[in-house]
TrEMBL record:
InterPro entries from the UniProt entry: ATP12_ATP_synth-F1-assembly (IPR011419), ATP12_ATP_synth-F1-assembly_N (IPR042272), ATP12_ortho_dom_sf (IPR023335)
Chain segments annotated as transmembrane: none
Taxonomic lineage of the native organism: Eukaryota, Sar, Alveolata, Dinophyceae, Suessiales
Organism: Durusdinium trenchii
Domain of life: Eukaryota
Protein name: ATP synthase mitochondrial F1 complex assembly factor 2
UniProt KW keywords: Chaperone, Mitochondrion, Transit peptide
Amino acid sequence: MALAFVCRATCAFRPSCRGQLRGLVTATRPKPMKRFYEEVTVQEVIGSPSLWRVLLDGKVVKTPKGTPLDLPGPGVAAEVAGEWQTQGDDLQPLEMPFTTIGCTALDITKADPPACVDRLLPFLEMDTVCFQGEQDLLADRQRQEWGPLREWFESEYNVKLGVATGLASPNHPEETILRVTEQLLSRDIWELCALEIATQTAKSFIVASALVDRETCLAEEAIRLAQLEEDFQVERWGMVEGDHDVTESEMLKWLTACRYFSKLHRDQTST
């Protein structure tokens, strides 16, 4: 018998992407569920040595759509197992980001990888880090922080980015969109899924790319880059308790999971 991981959701995009709302296993609160198992173990999928499963009292965990949660390697499986092992009397699915990434990859990304790429491109087309503020102090900070990030992205993807001021759009060259599309389509479902969740969390494709692809960009750095404008306003007007601080806590959880999931997966495929 298999056990299904139950956690359905919808995630909000930037205003430019509101027309692309979709179901994701990451946002709304599922119904409370009592812990129903004692032992958590992992095992290699017979006939597929690169895939591993998590078992609860010997029963395979499944995704919400009923697919066995076959994960890319023992490292990822161990992290998922750890999430289940550390649950208390009441299950907290939203505190299980590795499990969520795995379920999302199998239930959503795998079904249509090009659609995942299509959802990512609008974030690039109107990426936060490609807008230049008109206020001198903010504009200076953006140049110092976002300038090197844009340079890294241009080098990583071998593209050129546009930069906008005021109400204009960045207007990236068409070749940039084509090259990024081609590179994204070359990724597997695990990388695409982690990148998409990171992009939705940071509200920036470029920041998310640095998080999962750049060795030196940790989750804390990604948050700082993604929230540069908001942090600038907080410095001027103060923090709204229960909003900004809670948001950062959630961002840290998901961005850390996306980065580490990607790293474990790549370490597995490179061996």
